[in-house]
Structure formats: C-alpha cells, structure tokens
Amino acid sequence: MIALWNQVTLERPPYIMWQVKPLDAKRTGVDVSGFKKALSAMIHEFESMDDLHRNVAVLSRLIYRMKDKFRNDKGFMSMVRLGKALDNYYRMCLKNDYVTLKSLIQMRDGMYSLPSRQNLEYVLARTQGFGKLMTRIESISWIASYYLLTRMKLGQAWNFALIPLATVCRIWVHTRDILLKCCFWYNELYRYVPQLQYVGAKPWLPDDQNLPPNLKSWLCVDWEDKDFNSFIKQQLIRKIMSEEYDNITNEKINTLMLDEEIDDSEIDDSDNSRLTQSIKVTSNNNVKNKSLSNNDTEDIGDRQTFVSSSLPPNDGSTAIKRKHMNIDQGNSSKKSKMRRK
Predict the structure, then answer these.
(1) What are 90's strand-pairing partners?
(2) How high is the mean pLDDT of the chain?
(3) Element (H, E) at 5
(4) 94: which residues sit within 8 A by CB, 6+ positions away?
(5) What is the reported pLDDT for 243?
(6) Nearest to 31 by CA among 93, 112, 87
(7) Which parts of this chain are annotated as the region Disordered (predicted)?
C-alpha cells in the first residue's frame, strides 16, 4: 500500500464538525484562538512566496531557450528535473487545504464549531508530503547548481550558464526556507491533534500507518537545527531592535549624533593601508584567477592584437626587399646569354 504522503490524489475525509462550549473548551484545554492564529500565519506565509514563483517562471523560460543546444548537458537535465518537481509543487495547492481547515472554525449560537480530527490528520499528511517534495527540490537544485558552476569553471559557454546558475541558487535558498517553515507548521498543528475529537465510528488513518510526531526527524534534515535556531534569533533581534527604535525619540538621536567624534589620523591610516594593499598584488595571482578557453572571444581578440603588433610598421621609412628582379636587369641577362651562344 502506498503511503498517504506519497499519493498524488489523496481521498479527503468528509467535512464533519463538532461543537463545544467556550467554558468546556477552556476546561478541557482546547485552544481555539491559538489554532486559528496558527492557520492564519501559515496562510500568510503561503501568500508571500512571490519571489519563488517569479524564479520558477524564469527557470521555465530558460529551459525552453536552452533545450536545443544543451539537451545532453547534465546541468540542463537537472534543470528539467527541477522544473518537473516544481510542477508537482503547484499541483499540490497546500494553501487551499489550510484555508478550508480554517473556514471550518466557526462560532455559532455561543458555541465553537470545530473540524474533526480526521480533517486535521488529512492536512498533516499533505504537509508531510509537501515537506518530502521540498527536500527533493532542494537536492535537485543543489545538483543542478553544481554542474552549472563546473561549466563556468571550465570556461565553456560560461555566459550561458551564469543566469541559470543564479536562478537555481535563488530557488535553492527559497526551498530551504520553506522546508524550515514546513517543519515548524507540522509541529504546531500536531499539538492540536489530541485536542480535537473523532466524528464517526471509522478513523481516517489506516491501522498500519501513522503520522510522525516530529517532521524534522522524519525528513532527516541535519542542517535544520542550526538554521532554525538562527532564524528564531534573527526574529528576536528584529523584534527587540524595533521596540528599542520605537522608544528612542528624535532628540536622543540628535544628541547621539553630536557626541560622535571622528579622528583624522584613523582616516589617513585606512587610506594608506588601502594603497599598500593595492601595491601588494602580484602577477601570479592574476594568472591563477584567469581561466582561458578556445571558445572565449576575448582570447581571440588578444591573438589578433598580438599578430598585428608583431608585424613591422608600414610607414615607408624601411624598404622591403623583393625576391623578383627589375625589368632592365632581366633584359640585360637575356642579351648576355644570346651573345655567348
């Protein structure tokens, strides 16, 4: 049996809801407001992926332009695989599942109408498949960037590989960010599974399958801990800095500007250090950084200038000796031969 997260068309459970009073929800630990806020934040993250969609559109146009000349190139074939994986990303439409789940949270006649646990398990299974697809896109984009960078190092058609490399690298960065957020979304939604109730006698999940409690460990993402911690630290720093800047008034900023002093000696020393650094550049470093190829137009131009510079200047000052004799010399030699005969 195919796993639930790996199915292209997953059968959705029926839209069944159950009701609970606000006091009973507070007593039993059902956090309705937190559940709704988490879904709103996830939907907002899906709506702010315009840069990724723009780079995906550029990638599809690059594949169309390069498919004739680079059809057997490994980097181009990796780009084609990346394009197919991104098509599956568009077909999933995970945002619609989150919007539908949020629409089931309603307030009717002083009672909360909440979705069943089956509906939440369906969204978690789709999120699990979405995370697995993001890992595939991340790995394929890394492979494609490796082959494109190798082509640039060789110097063969490097100008054609520069724009695809930049596009694939942007997709790689956005994919890692989305994968990091996907693990956070899954862990947040998984906390509300025991708070919801099953509606109906038959559960939606099969007996031989279950949802992992932690998506990060299931995906085996080894870099996620470091990046996730840095992501949280950046958010905290931005929050603290925004609060501090709101508290600082314009008068305090002016006083801080007046208290600053600049030493002229430090500026002169920095200028001298820059001059000394520019003098220390050697010719060996320039030779190492240059990559020459037979297809480079700049190399052809250098050879033409070298050939033209090696020829002597044709200014009339120096006469060029000819191999042939003059006409008068030729006639005198013929007459001398006739007399000898």
Answers:
(1) none
(2) 74
(3) none
(4) 46, 126, 127, 130
(5) 54
(6) 112
(7) 267-341
Output the pLDDT for position 20: 87
Domain ranges of the chain: 27-243
User: Is 168 in contact with 141 (CB distance < 8 Å)?
Assistant: yes
DSSP letter at 224 equals H
Question: How many Cα atoms sit within 13 Å of 116 on the Cβ side?
Answer: 17
Task: Work out the number of other CB atoms within 10 angstroms of the CB of residue 200.
Answer: 12
pLDDT reported for residue 208: 82
- What distance in Å separates the CA atoms of residue 231 and residue 226, rounded to the nearest whole number? 9
Helix axes 94-103, 117-154, angle to 10 degrees: 160
Determine contact, residues 231/26, Cβ cutoff 8 Å: no
Nearest-angstrom CA–CA distance, 31 and 33: 6
Q: Which two tokens stand for residue 123?
A: 């969204």
Distance CA 115, CA 196 (A): 8
For residue 30, what is the DSSP state? -
Count other Cβ atoms within 10 Å, centred on residue 161.
Answer: 23
Q: How far apart are CA 221 and CA 232, in angstroms?
A: 17
What are the CA-CA distances from residue 302 to residues 287, 290, 296, 308 (Å)?
A: 15, 14, 10, 10
Q: Which residues contact 199 (CB under 8 A, 6 or more apart)?
A: 16, 17, 18, 116, 117, 118
- Mean pLDDT over 56-75 rounds to 90
Task: Report how far apart the first and last C-alpha atoms of the chain are (Å, whole number).
Answer: 113
Task: Give which of 38, 102, 89, 37 is closest to 60, Cα–Cα.
Answer: 89
Condensed to tens digits (0 to 9), the pLDDT of residues 205-252 reads: 888 888 999 898 898 876 655 554 555 556 655 655 555 445 544 444
d(CA 25, CA 12): 26
pTM above 0.85, yes or no: no
Dist. CA 205–CA 239, nearest whole Å: 41
